[in-house]
Amino acid sequence: MAVPLYQAKAEFFRTLGHPVRIRVLELLQDGPRPVRELLAAIEVEPSNLSQQLAVLRRTQLVTATREGNTVVYALSTPDVAELLRAARRILTEMISDQESLLAELREPDRQAHRA
Amino acid sequence: MAVPLYQAKAEFFRTLGHPVRIRVLELLQDGPRPVRELLAAIEVEPSNLSQQLAVLRRTQLVTATREGNTVVYALSTPDVAELLRAARRILTEMISDQESLLAELREPDRQAHRA
DNA sequence: TATGAATGTGAAGAATTCTTCAACTTGCAA
DNA sequence: TTGCAAGTTGAAGAATTCTTCACATTCATA
């Protein structure tokens, strides 16, 4: 409640800041998935995955529904998928920027193309 | 180089996952700022701010330029600002969703409005 | 109802990240 | 030069987060 917005934001990003959690969210972008499938795709111990899923549940990024013997996870809102797409786009750009910078440093003045 | 993309992403988000760093990035959204101003706005010890700025520099999110006696920081690409805007939008939505859910739980069945 | 498969949980040590302190640079100006 | 203001840095203890282990739940079915 009294949590300042910038702190809420920081917490939100920290939640995204774990490889397993990122992969889970990305898998869920294509629709709900049972734990079993996540487990098959992610290569991590079951209890570890459970811990990470618990984090995602606590922060409301995903929802879990029991269906008989299995538990199905889903993104709690499509906004999450949107943010991930934005992040991917930006990361890709940043990385390719770095790469072309590197390339330029390696072979300097080869058909220079600056702004 | 051999770092899997999902790990790069996780690192990226972790970098954003700190209140001081978030505030710095938000202040820089409106243009370059000398450390002095950041310090005035953020309320944190100089050495702590420096540490966080160092993190942002290492991950290439910002650039620093010395101008005589002061050091001026800037976002290294407008993409960062874009991501922050996306995040703000999403967070705001998620929070308001939670709030209306809460409201509904508090006064149930008062003019129900579901999909 | 006894079993087993699918998941989840609390706890503890390992690993990371934060904060703070003291000391160090850089540039300017007395 | 000397001194001071503006920032930065390395190091270390504090705090947080991860991973893993042992054990618990929940369902379905034999």
UniProtKB/TrEMBL annotation, chains A, B:
<keyword id="KW-0805">Transcription regulation</keyword>
<dbReference type="InterPro" id="IPR036388">
    <property type="entry name" value="WH-like_DNA-bd_sf"/>
</dbReference>
<keyword id="KW-0804">Transcription</keyword>
<dbReference type="InterPro" id="IPR001845">
    <property type="entry name" value="HTH_ArsR_DNA-bd_dom"/>
</dbReference>
<keyword id="KW-0238">DNA-binding</keyword>
<dbReference type="InterPro" id="IPR011991">
    <property type="entry name" value="ArsR-like_HTH"/>
</dbReference>
<dbReference type="InterPro" id="IPR036390">
    <property type="entry name" value="WH_DNA-bd_sf"/>
</dbReference>
<dbReference type="InterPro" id="IPR051011">
    <property type="entry name" value="Metal_resp_trans_reg"/>
</dbReference>
<protein>
    <submittedName>
        <fullName>ArsR family transcriptional regulator</fullName>
    </submittedName>
</protein>
<dbReference type="Pfam" id="PF01022">
    <property type="entry name" value="HTH_5"/>
</dbReference>
<feature type="domain" description="HTH arsR-type">
    <location>
        <begin position="1"/>
        <end position="95"/>
    </location>
</feature>
